[in-house]
Design a protein that fits this description.
Layout lengths: L7 E2 L11 E5 L5 E4 L5 E2 L1 E7 L3 E4 L4 E2 L5 E2 L10 E10 L8 E7 L6 E7 L8 E13 L5 E10 L11 E5 L12 E7 L6 E11 L1
Parallel strand pairs: 1-2
Antiparallel strand pairs: 2-3, 3-4, 5-16, 6-16, 7-15, 8-15, 9-12, 9-16, 10-11, 10-15, 12-13, 13-14
């Protein structure tokens, strides 16, 4: 047989100069590679759900399926998180929505790393695809992350969901103990919002 059996392990020691190593992370069970600078690369995390959530989001709500389990080592510079969500709204709800990237255990009380604030919705039915990205610009105790959201929707620009692009740089955040935690998104559509998310998919790439 041609099977290759690899033990799961926490992050190994940095290899010698001009060498790289391959390993399977013991926390996420994802395949990774480390170069001689100690940088780990690969598709290091993933989560999804095909179960609809909502109608809801009139209050700040953690998005089911958005929480990505982080590997056994702390976040490194250059790591990229990307989420795609398919959603809809009713004509109810005209408040200003917020989208919050959170780090913790995968619940609404997790630490907010960055908040993107949209524009006021309008009283119109809308359907759309949200694409979120979070980029680790600096890592450690005094870290910074950059986030953005793009929306492709069926209503005219600034109608229904409203915003088509948001982006912002965080203040100083602590990523020095991120190993094994969960990074996900919460959405607050505001009073009377009736949003439904039909699919959610997220991944971490480094």
């Amino acid at each position: 047989m041609a099977d290759i059996l690899i033990d799961n392990e926490t992050i190994p020691s940095t290899p010698a100069a001009s060498k790289s190593l391959l390993f399977v992370d013991s926390t996420t069970k994802k395949f990774a590679q480390m170069d001689d600078a100690g940088t780990v690369r690969g598709l290091l995390g993933r989560n999804f759900t095909v179960i609809s959530s909502g109608a809801g989001f009139a209050a700040d709500t953690y998005v089911a399926g958005s929480g990505i389990l982080l590997p056994s080592f702390n976040l490194q510079v250059g790591a990229l998180f990307r989420w795609t969500m398919i959603g809809s709204k009713t004509a109810a709800g005209v408040a200003t929505p917020t989208f919050i990237f959170r780090l913790g255990t995968g619940v609404i009380g997790d630490t907010a790393l960055l908040t993107l604030t949209g524009v006021a919705q309008t009283a119109a039915v809308d359907n759309g695809m949200f694409i979120f990205e979070l980029f680790i610009k600096t890592a450690g105790v005094s870290s910074a992350v950059y986030g953005q959201m793009a929306l492709i929707h069926s209503a005219a620009n600034a109608v229904g969901f409203g915003s088509t692009e948001l982006d912002a740089l965080s203040g100083t955040v602590d990523l020095s103990t991120s190993a094994g935690k969960t990074l996900g998104i919460s959405i607050n559509g505001g009073a009377s919002a009736a949003w439904t998310l039909t699919t959610v998919h997220g991944e971490m790439i480094s």
